[in-house]
Design brief:
Blueprint: H1 12-24, H2 28-45, H3 51-69, E1 82-87, H4 94-107, E2 112-116, H5 124-134, E3 139-140, H6 148-161, E4 166-170, H7 179-195, E5 202-208, H8 214-225, E6 230-234, H9 244-251, E7 256-260, E8 268-270, H10 273-281
Parallel strand pairs: 1-4, 1-5, 2-3, 2-4, 5-6, 6-7
Antiparallel strand pairs: 7-8
Helix pairs in contact: 1-2, 2-3, 3-10, 6-7
The structure holds guanosine-5'-triphosphate and magnesium ion.
Magnesium ion binds at residues 94-95, 118, 124, 170.
């Protein structure tokens, strides 16, 4: 961004270079066209020729785009237990993120229970139990092969009985195009509601920033079957440019709530739009 805006004046090349850069940074065609259309229109209308002015306008435009689409009720944990269901395709970081989230809330002083809803993969329960032991967070689990919905049913009842403030349910990775797996997720959702009609208060879709625009297809299909309340974009510490966040927020109107920035327990951050956009430029507004 800085090198594109390093010229003294605005000319037609800048629009083309911006378009290429946004596409290469995973903004996707729809968000890229929308951003450039508004940028170009206003630059020409307001007769802006100074790149310093243009860069400030461009940053403001990006920020506005994220903030207007990024509306959500922030959870206040009034109703307890506050149930968070973690969903997503294989390997995107669901289990790690569930534990990072649990740790994050624990540090804020909340009582948290984790539930091992992934009963498919042989190592899945062990992975969660081990992480729970490491960070002193209780984990409810049943042996591998148990019905996932029955684990969830017992976990919600236990969280109610023990008056836990937050219950975070990890689930098995499922391909968005495998119908029976998506139906199983709907069943888990129904079972939670049976125990606690207002729950799950949050359904977080975990998306891997490293796979770029493929995430959009995943998010479209998941949200056509289950009400996703927010997304957590992981692996932003890698080579991913992060433009995918604009597509998620703009095209799908799914707010990005947290971002994963590494493999360590503290590598989870509340998504901050302004900080995120600043990261594209290395220049503060
Ligand atoms: N660099 C980096 N790695 C991450 C991040 N989040 C998760 N990972 C890594 O991604 C890998 C998969 O993480 P898991 O949490 O096991 O993923 P999952 O979605 O639960 O996987 P399945 O249960 O097999 O579907 C692990 O090696 C994690 O350490 C992140 O934000 N940054
Ligand atoms: Mg997992």
């Amino acid at each position: 961004m800085n090198s594109i805006f390093s010229n003294k004046t605005i000319d037609k090349h800048i629009f083309k270079e911006l378009k290429n850069l946004l596409l290469l940074s995973d903004f996707g065609v729809v968000a890229t066209e929308k951003i450039l259309y508004t940028f170009k229109k206003n630059i020409l209308k307001k007769n802006i020729s100074d790149t310093k002015v243009a860069i400030i306008y461009f940053k403001t435009l990006l920020l506005k785009m994220l903030t207007t689409s990024q509306k959500f009720e922030y959870c206040c944990f009034e109703e307890i237990p506050f149930v968070i269901l973690i969903v997503g395709v294989n390997g995107v970081g669901k289990t790690t993120t569930a534990v990072k989230l649990a740790y994050f809330y624990k540090q804020l002083g909340h009582s948290v229970l984790l539930a091992a809803g992934d009963t498919f993969r042989s190592a899945a329960v062990d992975q969660l139990v081990e992480l729970g032991l490491t960070y002193d967070i209780p984990v409810f689990s049943k042996p591998i092969g148990s019905d996932s919905a029955s684990v969830v049913f017992d976990a919600v009842n236990l969280a109610i009985k023990q008056e836990k403030k937050i219950l975070i349910i990890d689930t098995a990775g499922r391909l968005h195009n495998k119908n029976h797996l998506i139906q199983e997720l709907q069943k888990i959702n129904r079972v939670i509601k049976k125990c606690l009609p207002i729950a799950p208060q949050e359904i977080f879709l975990i998306l891997d920033a490293g796979i770029g625009q493929n995430s959009i297809q995943q998010a479209k299909i998941f949200s056509s079957h289950i009400k996703i309340t927010g997304s957590i974009v992981t692996k932003l510490d890698g080579t991913a440019k992060g433009g995918i966040i604009f597509s998620i927020v703009n095209e799908l109107m799914i707010p990005v709530r947290y971002i994963g920035v590494g493999e360590k327990i503290k590598d989870l951050q509340l998504f901050n739009q302004k900080k995120f956009i600043d990261g594209f430029f290395n220049i503060k507004l």
